[in-house]
Design a protein that fits this description.
Number of helices: 12
Number of strands: 15
Radius of gyration: 25 Å
Helix content: 25-40%
CATH topology of the largest domain: Aspartate Aminotransferase, domain 2
Shape: globular
Structural class: alpha/beta
CATH class of the largest domain: Alpha Beta
């Protein structure tokens, strides 16, 4: 993906403002004798992603060991992280010694968290977001806590939700008085949750744990008709090509934010995203940063809402979370600012197109098929392979590939494969050839 600071339209507006027709007119005063005529003979420019991959290949020559090409996902993804993200996230303007309770000392971090919240709301189509949570799993727990109340205590969870998220719900639920109840899906998606007057929430992951697109709006309609809250677990980088949770009818939306400029880093630290309708703003956990003005009318940023009982009356608190993942949220804000709306669409399209191509190449191997051939998917898909999936993973490590994630819950012969914008056609072809060789 190329980066240019100004669009052609913006350049045209600037030229019009100073009364000239082209950029060349800016340099008419330079004598022709000292102007460069013709080309410098340099190759065409490439994107940062491409040049980083070239440099990685050069570095691998010295190490005598190539880095594994990653086709694994299942909740943590090998997306491209531009250098600008962590170059800016590490700047002192965004750092404080502890927490931003004193706004006069914390304007940098408060402003970037306000921008983070604004971006999450724009991304999800929801009204309000907080300054992040610990990770995607705790974000889901907090969403369920927001939804439960009165006689409505039961929580229905789609079979397509990541089992690790369900286990986290079960752990927290054991102390809060609920047990997540799984409703079955059909051919990897959908299902028919029975929403009675005691159901507080219906949880759907879209795309789901198998990478499949759920009929989310239909499931959320069932939840609303039964008087329950609709909670969606979403993939932030899918929203350039998929409808946002707010448009699908979700009441609360949660996600793992690792893919927004945060490195895989052996499993963390990551950050949780949560967004909701304005009616739930006082039930949201953690911090919410707001914009205001000081006595002189100068714009400033403060902690607008945080439930004090989280600090001093914990037995009455809706949540015990009173902090956030500021550094990861800063990185996510910079990444989303770098990406922009058009970049978000481009990343989504590239992931979807490369996943479709990889699925076509891999299912061309004898004995390999999609687990759910008729189900639509975004950037992940589950394969059924003719030998145990963990053996396939081990064999492909020897050939330079991290082949995917085995899904024993679906069968010992099921492998989940993920594609991001970092994977090239050449890498996908080489991966398919290596799998074919290993299976042969």
């Amino acid at each position: 993906m190329k980066f240019a600071p100004h669009t052609d339209a913006e350049i045209g507006e600037m030229l019009s403002a100073i009364g000239i027709e082209s950029l060349d007119s800016l340099f008419e005063q330079i004598p022709p004798s000292v102007r460069l005529e013709g080309s410098l003979g340099l190759p065409d420019g490439v994107s940062e992603l491409e040049i980083v991959e070239d440099l990685r290949a050069l570095a691998a020559r010295d190490r005598h060991l190539d880095e594994l090409v990653c086709f694994a996902g299942a909740g943590a993804y090998d997306h491209f992280i531009p250098a600008v993200v962590w170059a800016l996230a590490a700047r002192s303007e965004f750092s404080t010694s502890y927490t931003p309770y004193q706004p006069e000392l914390s304007q940098g971090v408060l402003q970037v968290l306000f921008e983070f919240q604004s971006m999450v709301c724009e991304l999800t189509g929801m009204d309000v977001s907080n300054a992040s949570l610990y990770d995607g799993a705790t974000a889901l727990v907090e969403a369920v806590h927001m939804a439960r109340g009165g006689e409505r205590t039961r929580v229905l969870v789609s079979e397509g939700v990541d089992p690790r998220l369900v286990e986290t719900l079960r752990t927290y639920g054991s102390g809060s008085g609920y047990e997540p109840e799984i409703f079955a899906s059909e051919d990897g998606r959908g299902g028919a949750p029975a929403v009675g007057d005691d159901v507080a929430a219906v949880v759907v992951q879209h795309p789901n744990v198998l990478g499949i697109l759920e009929p989310a709006s239909e499931l959320f309609s069932v939840a609303r008709e039964g008087g329950a809250r609709a909670i969606q677990v979403f993939d932030p980088l899918s929203l350039g090509v998929l409808a946002p949770p707010g448009e699908l009818g979700a009441d609360i939306a949660v996600a793992e934010g690792q893919s927004l400029g945060n490195h895989l880093a052996f499993g963390g630290p990551y950050l949780g995203l949560i967004a909701a309708r304005m009616s739930d703003v006082r039930r949201m956990p953690g911090r919410i940063v707001g914009e205001t003005v000081d006595v002189d009318g100068t714009p400033g940023y403060v902690l607008t809402l945080q439930a004090r009982e989280q600090h001093i009356r914990r037995e009455k608190a809706n949540s015990n979370i009173c902090t956030n993942q500021t550094l990861m949220a800063v990185a996510a804000t910079i990444y989303l600012g770098w990406l922009g709306p058009e970049g978000l669409v481009e990343v989504g399209r590239r992931c979807a197109a490369k996943a479709a191509y990889a699925a076509d190449r891999l299912t061309g191997i004898e004995g390999v098929s999609l687990l759910h051939p008729s189900a639509p998917f975004f950037k992940e898909f589950a394969l059924r392979v003719p030998v145990p999936a963990d053996r396939v993973v081990a064999a492909l490590v020897e050939r330079g590939f991290l082949a995917g994630v085995p899904l024993p819950r679906e069968g010992d012969d099921v492998l989940l494969v993920a594609l991001t914008e970092r994977r090239s056609k050449e890498q996908i072809d080489a991966y398919a050839e290596a799998m074919g060789e290993a299976l042969a």
